Amino acid sequence: MKTASALILALVILTGVGLALSSNTPPTQTISASGSQVYTLPPELSSAFNNDPRVTDAELSTSIEPQSVILPVTQTSALQLKRVGQIGGVTYGVAVSGGRAYMGNGPRLFILDVSDPAHPRFLGRSGVLGAFVRDVVVRDGYAYVANGAAGLHIFNVTDPAHPLEVGFYDTPGWTVGVVVSGNYAYVADGDNGFLVFDIVNPAQPSLVGRYDTPGSARSVAVTGNYAFVVDYINDFNNSLQMINISDPTHPYLARSYQISGKFLDVAVAGNYVYTASWEYDPQDPLGDTWNALRVFYVVQDPLILAPIGEFKTLEAYESFVAVQSNYAYMLSLDRPLLIIDISDPTQPKQAGVYPTGGSNGLTVAGNYVYVAGVSSLSIVNISNPTTPTGVGVYNSPVGVVSDLAIVQGYVYLPGLRVVDVSRPSVATALGAFNLPFGPMAVMGDYAYVATDDRLRVWNVSNPITPTEVAALNTWADDVVAAGNYAYVAWAGGMNVLDISNPISPTQVGYLELPPYTSRHIAINGHYAYLAERAFYPELRIVDISNPISPTEISLLRLDYRQPLSSLDVQIVVTGNYVFLGDSFLMTMHMVDVSNPISPTTVVSRTYGGMGIAVAENYVYMADGGSGVRVIDITDPVTPTEVFVYNTPGYAQSVRVLGNPIYIADQEGGLVILRAYHHFSYLPLLLRN
Questions:
Q1: Which domains does the chain carry?
Q2: Which of 158, 185, 400, 517 is surrounded by the fewest CB atoms within 10 Å?
């Protein structure tokens, strides 16, 4: 029975906080991405809700009836991460159509105007995809994007300034190669094999066929009724799979060819198949290795897949191949572009060479080869294949990101690339400078960069035009700045530099330590904390109250499981605790240093250890391909993982400065996240 004094309890989940407010306007019901019911507050309540300082989101996941009053009874909080910005990443895959180049830039599709090859010009980009782009093919106004773990994406690119995603299929495997022929898209899907999609309606790609290759499908090319798939099992057991696709709904193996080594890429032209491969002599597996262009001749009746020619070149881990007319173009990691004359396919021979420095894909269109480098697109004129010439380059403002430092709304990346992140959703690259890679510390108007054999000092008061003002010869694995001093960790110990005059740094102190492979350093108060790798991961504490005479006061061995195992140990210190991430054992160590003379390990847990940061009661761990892990350390003895965010690339380093969180995501570029607290309530509804 309904009475004025009746109390009705209902379990309701709210994102935000309960409000003691009433309204005559009913809420609007929608369906969230997860499928749960979401009710948006009416305007008069929404305004009050948004002005509440405790609120983190203006959306309620509840049913609020008119004249109801919500009284929160209990609440719990859970931290979540959401992406608020991204820029940069690896340049991978390239296709050219109608005077435009389409390529991957990290987890985005980039479109360039290449109608004037000498001056390639940026036109537009897609939103952020789930992984970095691996391959692109364009046909009839649509771009088909192989997006690794995030599947197959299809974009309408008729407006190149605003590519619009219209279709998507989340494949079970790792989508690394795609080609379109007729009404079908053929996909190399890693461990999930070879897939066939009906794309008559690009907005609704439909999986219609699959062939489970023995290993991992890496690349695909199609001609006539056959698809040729590079299939990887291991470095010594690979094959070229020739798959009959005369009935796309029932592909089956027609022929295969195996080599001692691995096929890397495949292209087709007429009755010939061309592969790039890495090979070795099976009679001497520890001897020389090389890369090769192999030529196969295909006869369909009777069915023959016959190797007829081979061209050997220097070894490289990755290779790509493209073919046009009488020439094959072969690109290998850290090797120049090779132009190979295949007019006699039984005797391919080198015709030309060009040092592009590219390594992540190529395509040929007309008189030009388009080469995807690590963070660039190079355009090479091949009108005379024996004397190719470079004509244009497009450099990505931000390429692969492996580390970062933050100060005053700017992110500084290795190579002293500067990104304005004052508005994370539109992070903007301000400049890139030819500086060797190395860890860095930024303090005030100066950046201190460790570059193996010297410490470089750059004035960054104007982030658009930073200038190098000093360089000091000193070995340097890591550097941190505090007060008037820079502390440089290296294999032989720790150097202390007086930087009161940044343009003239001078060494004033030195602590000799055992010759470890490398060290990382953090400073807190009067102590320096050195995380060391080689032999066993260790924490060394140094008293720097007198910087001129630093003194070691304690040493703690962190892990005895595997000597010589710790590839890298990152370190951060906050309050009475030091946190270390071990990238080999993928372990987080938490050490109590309240008594620096006798540090003690509080806990060691396997969470991942590429990079580490601490904010409030949370540890953020960069965990490579697993993204970013968040560990609640409210109770230091029993840390609890509360959230995992899968970044598009390979999370290498993490920095937290208040909120957002900044991730050096390697191939995924710079990823910016924000932490949100979501609350759960058991409210009390009072009805009149």
A1: 7-84+679-686 (no CATH), 272-396 (2.130.10.10), 400-508 (2.130.10.10)
A2: 158
